Amino acid sequence: MEVLQKIPHDTSAFTQGLELVDGVLYEGTGLEGQSTMRALDPSSGNVQKKVDLPQDFFGEGITVVGDTIWQITWRNGVAIERDRRTLNEIRRVQYQGEGWGICDDGKRLIMSDGSAKLTFRDPKSFTETGSVQVTRDGKPLTQLNELECVGGKVWANVWKTDEIVRIDPANGQVTDTYDLSSLKPSGPDVDVLNGIAHIPGTNEFLVTGKNWPTIFRVRFNGMGQD
């Protein structure tokens, strides 16, 4: 893995979702009473816009779909659809189980819930359309957190680890594992690696963690343009 750039990151952000679209870095943050939806300048890390979630909501993953953003919640069972320009709420949709990470592969939403299962959902209605079990070396891989859909594959943070895995959603198999432990900053308040944003048109990513002071622009070794 090669580090290409370091960008400042708000250390108060408990990062749960990260996605770069049309030159805007969208970030969803968690913790009850502190959850937000943000729009950042990816070159400086500056927060350009921020909307708070209700006090009892624990924000989780986000993904951009057209002119809207889906933001899921941990145990509230609610997905919030937002206007991408203003970040304001459009509507809320209920779902069963926990919400961890989410991404849009261009045809469907793919969502994680802490188990080894990835659930497929309709991008407009949010209804479940199928699922796949994720395995690495034949064993179920649980605690898949923030997700990023890139080129038909799913990239996922594995909670409580410094690993990012690449998953083939057709069969649930992990095809690559990347160790990002070298990026982890020191400090008493620094939490786990979480947040993967693909830089469109490149084989580079922005990655960060919960309460990290830095967003890293990285390239993974041995990764083609797929």
From TrEMBL:
Domain of life of the source: Bacteria
InterPro entries cross-referenced by the UniProt entry: QCT, Quino_amine_DH_bsu, WD40/YVTN_repeat-like_dom_sf
Signal peptide limits: none
Membrane-spanning residues: none
Name the record gives this protein: Glutaminyl-peptide cyclotransferase
